[in-house]
Amino acid sequence: MATTKDKVDVVTIGVGWTGGIIAAELSKAGYNVVGLERGEDRSTEDFQMMHDEYRYDLRHGLMQDTSKETITFRNNLDELALPMRQQGSFLLGSGVGGAGVHWNGQTWRFLPYDLEIKSMTEEKYGNKLGDEYTLQDWGITYDELEPYFYQFEQVAGISGEDNPKGAPRNNDYPTPPMKSTPILDLFKEATKNMGLHPFQMPSGNLSENYENPDGETIAQCQYCGFCERFGCEYGAKSSPNVTVIPTAKKTGNFELRTHSNVVEIIQEGGKATGVRYVDVLSGEEFIQPADVVVLTSYVLNNTRLLLQSNIGQPYNPETGEGVIGKNYCYQILPGAAGFFEEKKFNTFMGAGSLGATVDDYNGDNFDHSDLDFIHGGSISITQTGRRPIASNVTPSGTPSWGAEFKKNAIKYHNRTLNVTSQGASMPHRNNYMDLDPTYKDYYGNPLLRLTYDFTEQDRKLHEYITQVCAEIMGEMGADIIEEAEMSEHYDIVPYQTTHNTGGVIMGADSQTSAVNNYLQMWDSESLFVVGASAFAHNGGYNPTGTVGALAYRAAEGIQKYLENGGGQLVKSKSKSRLT
User: Fold this and answer.
1) String of b and e for 215-247 (b: at least 16 CB within 10 Å)?
2) pTM exceeds 0.90 for this model
3) pLDDT value at position 275?
4) What sections of 398-455 are H helices per DSSP?
5) What is the 8-class DSSP label of residue 56?
6) How many CB atoms sit inside 10 A of residue 257's CB?
7) Which stretches make up the Glucose-methanol-choline oxidoreductase C-terminal domain (predicted)?
8) Which residues are within 8 A (CB) of 280 and not within 5 positions of it... i.e. 6 or more apart?
9) DSSP letters spanning 201-216
10) Would you place residue 92 in the very low, low, confident or very high pLDDT band (cuts 50, 70, 90)?
11) Greatest CA span in the chain, whole angstroms?
12) How far is residue 235's CA from residue 274's CA, in Å, rounded to a whole number?
C-alpha cells in the first residue's frame, strides 16, 4: 500500500542538469518543488579521491547498475533483443547531478539548420534522403531559442570564443577560452593552411574563477585530465552539483529526495497528477501528487517511463503511427589517428573540453548538391588527458600482447594524436524504442528495448568526413595515418558516445511529435518532458548546451502554465490525441 505525500506545485523525475534547472527556476519563483532522484546524493567533497582510473573509468563507478536496470538491444525488427549486462556503447549515469557529473563539459549550440532541418533541406535540395528517413523540424527557430542558450551559458560560466561557422551569438561567452597548447596550435595551423576556420572549443571546464548570476562559484580548471567518467574535486567543471542544485536548495522551496525510483506517472482525465515511486533502500512505495510533473531523466528513461505509464501513443515502425519511442538517434564517429616518429606531445595533461574545432563541414556549411547525404559534423582535436591504463594506442598490425606490443605502446603513448568528428545522426523509421515483451527489471517492470542500426546516410557521411580528418592529419605532419572504420552493423559494445537523442520528440504538430516547443506533452498538459529525448534528430555536436537551453525554455513554460491555471501553451497544427 503506497503512502500518499502532501501535494506540491512541481515534482521532477531525476535531478541532473534538466531537473536541477527546473528546480532552480521554479523554486526561485516561489513554487514548491520536490526532486526525486533514484541514486545517491553527491557533491564536490565526494570527489576528493576521484583519480582512480580503474574504479571510475574502467569499472564505471558513477554509472547505472545494469544488474538491476538496463536495456535490451537488437539491430532490426527480425532479431531477438537481449539485455545489455555491461556498460557499453553509452554510459548511463546515476545519482544527483546525473551525466552532468561525469561529462567532459563540451558545450555547443545546435545550428539554425538543425532546428529547421526538414524545411531548409527540402528548400535547397528537395527530398534528398527519401521517405524512410523521418526528418522533421523542431517547432522552434534558432532566434527563438538563442536567449535560452545564453541563459544556460551564463549559469554554467562557459568559456569560449567566437565560432566563425557556428550559430550567431548576441553576447560573448561569460568567460574567456581555455589555454591553447602545442597540440591545439598544430591543428589550428594545419586547418588554416587548408582554408578552414579553427577556434577554441566552448568549455564547461572554466578558464578562470567565475560567479554566476545566481551567486554560485565555479573554480578555475586545473587541467588534471580526469573529467570524463569522473567528478571534479576542484569544483571547476560546470555541473548541476555546483550550480543549479545549490541555487534551488537556498530558496527553501526545494526538497531533494534521493534513492527514490519513480515507476509510474499517474494520469487522470488527460493530466498528470503525480508519480508513484519506490524508496530503493526500504522498499516502501509512495505517491507524490503535484500540479505539474516534469520528466527530467535520461533519454532512454524518459521514453521508458512514458511507455510504462501508458501516456502518449507508442511508435509503430511498420505503420509509421505513434510518437513515443520515435526518432531514436545516436552519432557516428569519423576520424583519423596520426602516429608521429619524431614529434612528442604532452598528452597526459588536459581537460574534458580542452580542444580546437572547425565547423566548415558541419550542418549545411558546405554544399551537398553533389553529395548523397545531408548534414555533417564538427571536426576537433581534443587534449582530454591520456590516462595510463586505457591508453595503449599502437599502429595497425601491432600484436595485442607481448614484447612488440609493449615496445609500440611505450613509443607511441606521447606520439599519437586523433582528429575526430561527431557526425550527425538522421532519424530512420526502423530506429526506435519500445518496451521489451520478455525482460523485466529488478522491480518487475518491462525493460526498454532499443532497435537501432547504422543507415546508408550514416555510412556516406562517415566516409566523407573521415577523408577530411585524414587530410587534416596529413597537414599536421603525421608519419602514419589510419582512417576510422565503420562496422557493418552498430554494436552496443564498445563505448562510442553517450549522445543518445529522441523518443519524446518536439514539433509543431501533435500527430508527428510528443511535446511542443515548451516541452509540454500534447497528450497530457500538466506533464513536461525535458532532455535530449526532445531532439528530432542528433546534430554534429555534444547535446548538453541545447538540452540546457530547452530546459530553461521549459521552466518558463511551466511557470506560464501555473500562472494561467493550466491549458496548452502552444496550439498544434493537428488535433491532439488525448489518452
Assistant:
1) ebebbbbebbbbbbbbbbbbbbbbbbbbbbbbb
2) yes
3) 98
4) 403-412
5) I
6) 18
7) 427-551
8) 38, 259, 260, 261
9) PPBSB-SS-EE-TTS-
10) confident
11) 72
12) 34
| Beta bridge mates, 286 | 3, 277
Angle value at C-alpha 427, between 426 and 428, nearest 5 degrees = 120
> Taking residues 281-305, what's their average pLDDT?
97
Query: What average pLDDT does the structure give for the chain?
Result: 95
CB distance 545 to 480 below 8 Å = no
DSSP characters over 480-500:
EEEE----SS--S-S------
Is pLDDT of 547 > 90? yes
Query: What type of residue sits at position 564?
Result: N
Give all strands (DSSP E) within 49-137, no chain letters: 71-74, 82-83
Nearest 5 degrees, angle CA 63-CA 65-CA 69? 120
Q: How confident is the model at residue 260 (pLDDT cuts 50, 70, 90)?
A: very high
**Among residues 413, 462, 499, 537, which one is catalytic?**
499
Residue 576 pLDDT > 70: no
- Alpha-carbon gap, residue 134 to 122, rounded angstroms: 13
Inter-residue contact 326 to 511 (CB < 8 Å): no
Residue by residue, DSSP assigns 492-528 as S-S------EEES-B-S-TTT-SB-TT-EETTEEEEE
For this structure, is 102 an active site residue?
no
* Cell numbers 553509452: residue: 90
C-alpha angle 393/396/397, rounded to 5°?
A: 120
39-55 in b/e form (b: 16+ CB < 10 A) is bebbbbebbeebeebee
Note the pLDDT of residue 579: 38
- Domains belonging to the chain, first-starting first, are 3-564 (3.50.50.60)
Q: How many CB atoms lie within 10 A of CB 6?
A: 8
Residue for cell digits 521514453? 303
Q: What is the C-alpha radius of gyration for the chain, rounded to an integer number of angstroms?
A: 23
